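Hi Y.,

Following your request, here is the sequence exactly as I used it, all 97 residues.
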Amino acid sequence: MPRYYFHIRKGDVLAEDLEGTEVSDSESVAEEAVEAARDLLAEGDLQGLDRREWVFEIAAQSGDVVLKLPFVDAVEPDLPDPDDSGDEQATKPSRVP
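Below is the corresponding structure, written out as tokens. Let me know if you'd prefer a different format.
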């Protein structure tokens, strides 16, 4: 199974993943990255840290970067609670062209 290295870019600093993670195929790399980013974001939230500016730079065993994932892209949108029957109007997210 191929090994990928989930380096984290924090501004000008690159925190290198020296161990890597075995991932079954290249499609799973993106899924693994989103899940890991969400975990790190949640951990940061609990500590009062904003990690949305961090970026995964995922490298294959060859050292070539195969995926860059800004953590902000892994943030799950806040959706209105469907059980909320209050009088407040829910705002819908808008798409920017």
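Confidence is low (pLDDT under 50) at residues 90-94.

Thanks again,
Q.
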